[in-house]
Design brief:
Number of helices: 26
Distance between the termini: 71 Å
Strand order of the largest sheet: 2-11-10-3-9
Shape: globular
Strand content: 15-25%
Radius of gyration: 28 Å
Number of strands: 22
Helix content: 25-40%
Bound molecules: 2-(butylsulfanyl)adenosine
Structural class: alpha+beta
Length: 693
């Protein structure tokens, strides 16, 4: 076949396969048999094999997983991926509706779209000229991880959008939810168990875990699906209601949730919520509530945002799933920080598709307050990925009650640490083992934390293995981890040559960790993932951070006095210092230049460049001066009087004529919360707002 003919045929085949993919994966209504589809696919692949220069990046054959990555790039979202204000109480939903109506005024025609709240992983998909360009996880809402290669393997994600009947904007950022259907989740867990691996707790974790595999082959082997529900940003996008947005997404080839409805009143929302909750277990995928969104997009702008949530949307959640079962026994578990938690071992029960056999009893005082003893009948609940909890004790039932059932003795916390035998101490309602790193359970917990996905990400080093290392005496201190050799692992249960080599290799690789991951992995009190990242960005080196005073630490956005003190105390502790010295000697951290230099190198355009602000009335949370400084810091200007050239008028308490002028001139007004939200959306840290600088 001539090159020209081949090219034409490749186009034809690709278009046909795309069409069939769409019908099969998005519309659930295939038109051709699997054999016919396979024949088309084979023909395309053969032609592309013979003409590799004709393989388009969005050819259907390119869903085949690519090469494993070393790490995910960090990607800034086209627009912040906000989260929603949420509540399960009907009264909260009604208050939301009232706020919306009050905010829009009595003449407004309020209508909402109601969508199931999908319980998966939120994702941003960026299309350029209708082609999938990149995909990223939500991350902290501003930046996420670039998981483009993995997302390409999801059949319901269009690689190329339908341009007809509705033209696709040249730049389009779509938000949606990646989910795993319950049946696929169960099959995956069966497979994992058969391979001797840890199963996932729920479909959401399974979906998020699949997205974050560095090897796209693994993602591809885990069936994921996508529902699109929002346009984050689009150039020249004329749609003005959420209904239109969803219609546009469907036209472009996305799967849009089929249970979406419109409502005009709170009563209708409550009815939909009840109806959906009853159908919840039959949907085949997990949902945890209803997302209520104001339909009218311009009206959304008028309502604006608080610093964290849009004011025009609300997640009306379902109450957690509850079941009754029996406590077989009560055991204790020692965590990484030494806190000893009582855990109820239960007669296994199904809670929303997940088998539950353990539930937390939180602490000594909770057990006493609820008076839970071995053998009791209890009600257990599971809310999302939160560890199942025992909520209350119930009276014995049926036979047991007749038999004048005698209860077990009152449960007591052991006096000594179940792991190392050290006498336990009480700290408020909590019970703590004071033995630190010397306690095997705490050491194992720290190893697991250091090896966790968001820290050094050492594959194959989970709970069981960490315990094995500690009990076998291979790791007596955290740094020993980096001295392990294959020959030491071989005698351990479950370790063969191959798996030992793999783990040793993974540990060696992890010793070149990025500073932020290392910091997070250390488990410094108060330091979560975000703070670890900000500290790394600010100080640039471990030495710089370690030597920082409490004052210097507080220069980092988000670090307050309490956190600064926790950090300096951690570094001042002689035991920690010795462990850190040893760790640093065995690792080679990837350290970057401090934030100021990095920022200067990147020189991004100031987000509010050229925008003119006028302030009127009193602000409650920050001073006028601070507000002006912050605006100027983002490239904006503060002016004294309102004109047509003004971009925003910030209206505080008891505002005067300027607010009126703004309305007359049609200049956008923001209330204090809306203003602060604008700042935080453009990168001002909420903790930084109130400091005067
Ligand atoms: S809208 C500002 N719609 O729920 C608009 N979110 O905090 C924000 N979610 O993590 C999102 N189904 O991933 C929206 N139909 C839906 C959704 C949905 C699930 C998730 C989303 C986010 C969380 C809300």
């Amino acid at each position: 076949m001539s090159r020209k003919r081949a090219e034409a045929r490749i186009h034809e085949l690709a278009a046909a396969i795309r069409h069939h993919d769409y019908l099969y994966y998005v519309r659930d209504s295939p038109e051709v048999s699997d054999e016919e589809y396979d024949r088309l696919f084979r023909e395309l692949r053969d032609l592309e094999d013979r003409h590799p220069e004709l393989v388009a990046p969005d050819s259907p054959t390119q869903r085949v997983a690519g090469q494993p990555l070393a790490s995910f790039p960090t990607i800034e979202h086209a627009a912040p991926m906000l989260s929603l204000d949420s509540d399960q109480a009907e009264a909260a939903l009604r208050r939301f509706d009232e706020r919306v109506r009050k905010g829009l005024g009595p003449e407004a025609d309020v209508a909402y779209t109601l969508e199931p709240k999908l319980d998966g992983a939120s994702i941003e998909l960026v299309y350029r000229e209708g082609r999938l360009h990149q995909a990223s996880t939500r991350g902290d809402g501003r930046v996420g991880e670039g998981v483009t290669e993995n997302v390409r393997t999801i059949p319901a994600v269009p690689l190329r959008l339908h341009d007809r009947p509705r033209p696709v904007p040249p730049f389009l950022a779509v938000r949606g939810e990646v989910i795993m259907r319950v049946r696929d989740f169960e099959k995956l867990n069966e497979r994992l168990l058969a391979e001797g691996k840890e199963p996932f707790a729920n479909p959401r974790n399974a979906a998020a875990g699949a997205l974050r595999q560095l090897d796209p082959q693994i993602t591809k082997a885990r069936p994921l699906d996508l529902y699109a529900y929002d346009v984050l940003l689009a150039k020249g996008f004329p749609e003005t209601t959420q209904g239109d947005v969803l219609a546009a997404l469907a036209d472009w080839g996305f799967r849009v949730n089929e249970l979406t409805e419109r409502a005009a009143t709170a009563d209708e929302i409550v009815a939909y919520h009840g109806d959906l909750e009853r159908r919840r277990d039959d949907l085949g995928y997990e949902i945890d509530g209803v997302v209520v969104k104001l339909d009218d997009l311009p009206a959304r702008e008028r309502l604006g945002w608080t610093s964290r949530h849009p004011r025009w949307a609300f997640a009306f959640k379902f109450p957690p799933r509850k079941e009754v079962t029996k406590v077989l026994s009560i055991v204790t578990s020692v965590g990484r920080t030494g806190v000893v938690t009582p855990v109820a071992l239960l007669l296994p029960i199904e809670l929303g598709g997940v088998t539950v056999s353990r539930a937390t009893l939180h602490n000594r005082e909770e057990v006493a307050r609820k008076d839970i003893r071995e053998g009791d009948r209890v009600r257990v609940q599971r809310a999302g990925d939160v560890i199942p909890q025992v909520i209350e004790r119930l009276e014995p039932e049926g036979d047991e009650a007749d038999r004048a059932h005698e209860r077990a003795p009152v449960w007591r916390m052991p006096a000594e640490c179940p792991s190392c035998g050290t006498p336990l101490v009480e700290r408020g309602p909590f019970t703590v083992c004071p033995n630190g790193f010397r306690c095997p359970a705490q050491l194992a917990g720290r190893i697991v934390h250091l090896a966790a996905r968001d820290a050094l990400d050492i594959a194959g080093l989970g709970d069981e293995t960490a315990k094995l290392f500690v009990t076998a005496g291979l790791v007596r201190q955290l740094p020993d981890l980096f001295g392990l050799g294959v020959e030491q692992l071989l005698p351990l249960e479950g370790f063969a040559q191959k798996s030992s080599e793999k783990l040793v290799e993974a540990i060696a690789k992890a010793s070149h960790a990025e500073l932020r991951r290392f910091l997070y992995g250390l488990g410094i009190p108060e330091v979560g993932e975000t703070v670890a990242r900000d500290l790394a960005l600010h100080f640039g080196s471990f030495a710089g951070l370690r030597g920082a005073s409490a004052e210097a630490l507080q220069e980092v956005p988000g670090v307050g006095p309490r956190m600064a003190e926790a950090i300096t105390a951690f570094f001042a502790d002689p035991g920690n210092a010795a462990v850190l010295d040893e760790l640093l000697a065995r690792m080679k951290l990837k350290e970057g230049p401090p934030a100021a230099k990095a920022a200067a190198a990147a020189e991004p355009e100031a987000p509010l460049a050229g925008k003119k602000f006028v302030f009127t009335g009193g602000l409650a949370r920050i001073t006028r001066r601070r507000a002006q400084e912050l605006v100027e810091g983002l490239g904006g200007k503060a002016a004294g009087s309102v004109s047509k050239a003004t971009d925003y008028v910030v209206v505080g308490e008891d505002a005067g004529s300027k607010a009126e002028a703004a309305r007359k001139l049609g200049v956008e007004t923001l209330d204090e919360e809306g203003f602060l939200a604008l700042l935080t959306q453009h990168g001002v840290d909420p903790a930084e707002l109130e400091q005067s600088g």
